[in-house]
Structures are given as C-alpha cells and as structure tokens.
Structure of COX15 protein:
Amino acid sequence: FNSLNHDMTLAEFKFIWYMEYSHRMWGRVVGLAYILPAAYFWHRGWLSRPLKGRVLALCGLVCFQGLLGWYMVKSGLEEKPDSHDIPRVSQYRLAAHLGSALVLYSASLWTGLSLLLPQHKLPETHQLLRLKQYAHGTTALIFLTALSGAFVAGLDAGLVYNSFPKMGERWIPDDLLAFSPVLRNIFENPTTVQFDHRILGIASVTAVTALYLFSRKIPLPRRTRMAVTSLLAVACMQ
C-alpha cells in the first residue's frame, strides 16, 4: 500500500490476504495428508523396505516445499534498492518453489501408480528403448518450460508483449540482450524471459506431438496408448 497500491481498499486487501492464507492452510493439509497416513502405515508394518525410503523422501520433500514457500514469500517483504516501487518475490525462489512442487507431485503420482498398476513386461526392443528415452527427454523439456513460466510470473514478463506469434512488430525483439552480462538476460530480462518461455512452449508441444506419432509405430499396451494420447490432448489444451 505504501509503495504502490495507494488506492487499495480494505476489501481488496482482504481478498489477497485470504488467497495467501488459504494457500498456506491448504499446504499444511497436504503435509498432514502425507505424514499422518505414512506414520500409520509404517506403524502397522504395511510398508516394504524400499517403500519406506520413498515415503521418507516424499514426507521430507513436503516439509522442504513448505520451507521454500516461506523463503520465497520472505523475499517479497525485503527492501530492494533497485525496485522500491514494485514489491515482488524473487523469481529465482518462485521457480524453486514451483519446481519442487512439480517434483513432489510427479514422485507422488509415480509412486501411487506403481502400487496400483502392475508394470507391463514388454520385450526390450530397440524401438521401445528409443520411445522411453524420448519420453524422458520430453519430460525434462516440459519441466524446463514450467520453470520458465515461474520466471515469467516473477518478473511480470507476460505484460511486456501481448501479441503472438510476433512480439510487437518483430520476430526477435530489439531488447532481447539488453542486460549485461549476457547470461543475466535469461533470468532477469522480462523480454528474454517471455521469449524463452514461448520458444520452450512451442518446443514442448512439438516434442509431445512427435512422441505421439512415434508411439503409433510401436505395438504398445492399451494403457500406454491411452497415456500418450492423453498427453497430446493436454499439451494442445495447455
């Protein structure tokens, strides 16, 4: 209010406050949803030794996620000598918070599916190995695209250009490498951050489409085909 939003009403502040409060309380509920059942299953002896290690890692990651969230919000309350007029959290901490959440979600989903659905025993053909490698590469590309979105959000980079596929009147903006040293542009220049996010997004959709087309040439179980098709559908919707 003192730095930027001088005309904010109490009702508008309460809306933001309740969003933040709900997010924190929901995070604590998620933590309890991990830790309490884990302790119960552990006590009853229902967890195998490998699963105990995985459960400990997941519970630790939940706690780490909460710590990262506090560390991120803390950066938004610190005085910054170069941007007194725009209170915002660090884009680096925001990306770390989002990245750890994606890792936690993916690991939880993978663990759950591993227990619920038995793994298919397929012959390790050359095509199948290539499909696995390509799927892992596509996963890494999607993860990187999501992290780049955190930098877009943290820098309000989405406000710089609102036209597509060109950025303004140009394919490559003039201020793409305005910061020095050059590497700083990737993480701190709003124009470069938005440009990179666009390129990564297009690359992700292209990679998912290629993965789908390649999978059509290989005899796969019905469940795997459904997963690949769903992946393409979600990528197009995203």
